Amino acid sequence: MGTRSSESAGKSPVIAAVLAVLYPGLGHVYLRRWGRALLWFGLIIATIVALVPEAAMPTTLSVDAILEAQAAIPTHVAALALGLSIVSVIDAYWIAAQTGTNGQPQTADSGAETAARSCPNCGKDLDEDIDFCHWCTTELDDYEQ
After folding, report:
1. Nearest CA to 113 among 101, 125, 121, 122?
2. Maximum pairwise Cα distance, the chain
3. Contact at 8 Å (CB) between 141 and 131?
4. Which of 1, 13, 86, 130 could cross-link with 96 by S-S, CB 3.0 to 4.6 Å?
5. Please, are residues 113 and 104 in contact by the beta-carbon 8 Å criterion?
6. Taking the model in full, what pTM does it have?
7. Which residues fall within 8 angstroms of residue 57, CB to CB, at 6 or more apart?
8. DSSP per position, the chain
9. CA-CA distance, 30 to 92, in Å (whole number)?
């Protein structure tokens, strides 16, 4: 269960937000939140396919063709795409900010409880049946579980 949140442990909220500004979903890829990344990628593509008129699609990849296509996009579609992008940035930033350094959500009472279930080296969840961390292979002989 801790795997998904521990993958985004220690990730910078600023980097996640900057990547999400570049393209919605990239911040989630950085955080290794694959489902959310696919959701954002798909949502932006679906919005473009469904709402941008055929006449607004550039026929070539020249600068002039792209500028003409941009001018042909309706204002409400551009506003929707911008709104989705802003929500993606906020979501990526929030996920990174809410994830503690050991991969667990930051709460006031999670300190002692998390220490008993986490690797002292990488901070990820431990399997109590083995005497090493299956994430970073640190031996846990001296570590009380």
Report:
1. 125
2. 68
3. yes
4. 13
5. no
6. 0.61
7. 69
8. -HHHHHHTTT--HHHHHHHHHHSTTHHHHHTT-HHHHHHHHHHHHHHHHHHS-GGGS-SS-SHHHHHHHHHHS-HHHHHHHHHHHHHHHHHHHHHHHHB-TTSSBP-TT-HHHHHTTB-TTT-PBPPTTSSB-TTT--B-SS---
9. 9
Q: When comparing pLDDT for 33 and 103, which is higher? A: 33
CA 36 to chain centre: 7
Angle value at C-alpha 30, between 28 and 32, nearest 5 degrees: 70
In angstroms, rounded to a whole number, what is the distance separating the alpha carbons of residues 145 and 142? 9
Whether the CA torsion 47, 48, 52, 53 is positive or negative: it is negative
Through-space distance between the first and last CA atoms of the chain, rounded to whole angstroms: 18
pLDDT, averaged across the chain: 80
Evaluate if residue 48 carries a pLDDT over 80: yes
